[in-house]
Amino acid sequence: GHFCSQGHFCSLGPCLSPGDSSANRVLLEMSPPKIEALLKQGGRYDQEVVPDLEAHVEEQLKTGTHDADANLALLKLYLLHPALTKPDVIESILLKAMMAFPSTHFSMCMFQIPEKHHYALKDVVKLSQQLEMAKFKAFWKDSEAITSLQKAAGWQESVRDFIAGVISTMYRTIREEQLLEALNLPAKELDARVKKQGWSRSKEDKAIITVNTASFESASQVGPKGPSNMTMDQYKSLFFAAAVTAA
């Protein structure tokens, strides 16, 4: 991802991972009746509903839910009424959007945020870039310094769901130690994750995890599908193709 000439954040594009259920879950969640009613009654342009929408963001952090429509409506109201803007609420909205990867909600949010706020949000933007670029080790290391993440219930599990989807797309098989590092997962929790994803351990070598059986090629080859030295352009193309197919 990068900041374009207009000062907006541009992601790599929609990168939907086949079989990833987390994206469907967060996108299908509807606004609570109270919030939905506020937005339908002209609230998208009424500054009086800002406190309710801000409280709704806080509720999403506590409950692990994600209301993309309401959050985008709040960012739009901040644009219409700049004096009401709360940078910490914007950061919370971006954290929820990051947890919704591979949904493109994060990029949609950034288009609604004035450039003057970008510097204050640089840490969260960097985390999102690391996920998009599959720099998972760096993501987990840098996430330790983002204290606001700690108030977002279920953020680690949401990110692991996304990373697992990426791994299933990029690899046929992967070594246990690589998988543990990518998911930032204790060894004792690996088997539960393998079961959740529908993966399996290789019969020949239990330290090798089969994460994708779609290929006709031998699953005994450890490494990414296609060229082992996959370029970032290939990586982008792979996800863009997956998004188009899933659409």
What does this structure look like?
52% of the residues lie in helices and 6% in strands. Strands 4-5-3-6 form a four-stranded antiparallel β-sheet. Strands 1-2 form a two-stranded antiparallel ribbon. Helix 3 packs antiparallel against helix 4, helix 3 packs across helix 5 and helix 7 packs antiparallel against helix 8. It has 247 residues and is an alpha+beta fold. The radius of gyration is 19 Å and the shape is elongated. A hairpin with a 6-residue loop joins strand 4 and strand 5. The chain has a domain of 134 residues: ARM repeat, domain 1 (Serine Threonine Protein Phosphatase 5, Tetratricopeptide repeat, Alpha Horseshoe), CATH 1.25.40.250. The N terminus and C terminus are likely disordered. One of its GO terms (molecular function) is translation initiation factor activity. This is CSN8/PSMD8/EIF3K domain-containing protein. One of its GO terms (biological process) is regulation of translational initiation.
Q: So, the CATH homologous superfamily of the domain at 2-135?
A: ARM repeat, domain 1
Helical stretch count? Answer: 12
Give the overall pLDDT as a whole number: 81
CATH topology descriptor of the domain at 2-135: Serine Threonine Protein Phosphatase 5, Tetratricopeptide repeat
- Counting helices, strands and paired strands, the structural category is alpha+beta
**How widely separated are the two ends?**
21 Å
Q: Which stretches are poorly predicted, pLDDT < 50 over at least 5 residues?
A: 1-28, 216-221, 226-231, 240-247
Described by the principal axes of the CA atoms, the overall outline is elongated
Strand arrangement across the biggest beta sheet: 4-5-3-6
Largest sheet descriptor: 4 strands, antiparallel
Record field, number of beta strands? 6
SS strand fraction: 5-15%
CATH architecture of the domain at 2-135: Alpha Horseshoe
**How large is the radius of gyration?**
19 Å
Q: Helical proportion?
A: 40-55%
Order of helices and strands: EEHHHHHHHHHEHHEEEH
